[in-house]
Design goal:
binds magnesium ion, binds adenosine-5'-diphosphate, globular, four-stranded parallel β-sheet, 17 strands
């Protein structure tokens, strides 16, 4: 067990790394960030910044020397780097878990083996696979690159074989997955923390609304059938157990118009849809990340208030902060990014209220004011 005073390392200097470092420092741990950029949200709040590429062996060596345990803020960190570190110090989640979660086909295969239900899918490695893939998924379908996609990037809806062929070409003929386009009633996500003793704590499901492929809003508790929400929680836990996953895991689900629970994807880290836990749960997802990498029992996931989280993208800049701060139940989180670009996640707010409907209308009102 690693106790306060120990040093924790994180690969990646983005906002997730920043919020991890802030939680760790609050809890009395020292923090080290490995990040190639000189200027990053996480390095700004860490005790130490190692400025180097994720693949630099001297930098990884230094990190292993400085840290008692290491985690990552993103899944696209090279597996070889995680393995290099794991040969020297505890690394959670493991390189193997991260490899599964970063690969759309592997994660769906795993989910299916664990009894979850992904949308019908097929792998496309070359143009020769296209007709067979369509016969599995039907049309319309969505083609996604198997790796490196995020915030709706690296995917395209296709309505016929010709569109699929050109989409596959546009993606540079890299390995892709084709999925049936489901009729979605709502999207939810389940966040959990699991430690190396196999103890798991899951949060209540969040209801998620995306705009232009980017998460816009999370509503908790989700306004969905409680049986389905509970089933999602159980399925996410089952998946973490089968992977022998250690860390914070986010699992995204679709609920279709005919009430099926569909596995979409998972993230081997804290998740944007879990930012509400910073203000409306007993223990936040970033405290959980600290706890489980330190071998401590997972924290209490109880919701302390209905809450709505809204992302603040660069499109809103410059923001009228005076307007934003009028609501006394609004908790603001900014990531310290120096340049606002369209679509860039600059921060978020959590708005707490006595009822979920009140939280939604208050949060929508603030967002609307900021947008005009
Ligand atoms: P990302 O890694 O960019 O989050 P996702 O696979 O989660 O990629 O897809 C982004 C969004 O696209 C989802 O949140 C959902 O709104 C929509 N989407 C993705 N796959 C499907 C599908 N099979 N059927 C219907 N909508 C989908
Ligand atoms: Mg997603």
């Amino acid at each position: 067990m690693l106790l306060p005073g120990a040093t924790l390392g994180v690969l990646g200097g983005g906002q997730l790394g920043r919020m991890f470092c802030m939680a760790a420092r609050n809890m009395g741990y020292r923090t080290v960030v490995l990040e190639p950029d000189s200027n990053s949200p996480a390095a700004e709040v860490a005790d130490q910044h190692i400025q180097a590429e994720y693949t630099s062996h001297p930098a990884l060596e230094q990190m292993a020397e400085l840290c008692d345990a290491i985690t990552t803020e993103f899944e696209n960190v090279p597996a070889e780097s995680l393995q290099f570190l794991a040969a020297r110090k505890p690394v959670h989640p493991s390189a193997e878990s991260v490899a599964v979660a970063r690969h759309r086909i592997q994660e769906k295969d795993y989910a299916r083996k664990s009894g979850l239900s992904p949308a019908p899918y097929a792998c496309i490695q070359s143009a020769d696979d296209i007709a067979a893939a369509i016969s599995v998924t039907g049309l319309p379908a969505i083609i996604k690159t198997t790796t490196m996609g995020y915030d709706g990037k690296g995917q395209q809806v296709v309505n016929d074989q010709q569109q699929l062929e050109s989409a596959f070409n546009e993606m540079g003929q890299v390995e892709c997955v084709l999925e049936k386009k489901m009729d979605l009633a709502v999207e939810i996500s389940v966040l959990l923390a699991r430690n190396s003793q196999g103890e798991v704590a899951s949060y209540p499901a969040a209801e998620n609304e995306h705009r232009n492929g980017i998460l816009h809003k999370s509503i908790v508790p989700a306004r969905v059938d409680t049986v389905l929400a509970e089933k999602a929680r159980q399925q996410a836990t089952g998946l973490a157990n089968i992977l022998d996953y250690v860390g914070v895991l986010a699992v995204e689900f679709f609920i279709t118009t005919d009430n099926q629970l569909i596995f979409n994807e998972m993230a081997p880290r804290p998740h944007n849809s879990g930012h509400y836990t910073m203000d409306a749960a007993v223990v936040s997802q970033f405290e959980q990340q600290v706890r489980v990498m330190c071998g401590l029992p997972p924290g209490d996931t109880r919701l302390t208030s209905p809450v709505v989280m809204i992302n603040l993208l660069g499109d809103l800049w410059p923001v009228n902060w005076q307007l934003c701060m009028q609501n006394p139940a609004l908790k603001l989180h900014l990531y310290g990014k120096h340049e606002a670009r369209a679509g860039r996640k600059m921060g978020h707010f959590n708005l707490l209220s006595a009822s979920v409907d009140e939280a939604i209308s208050a949060a929508d009102k603030v967002f609307e004011q900021l947008s005009t």
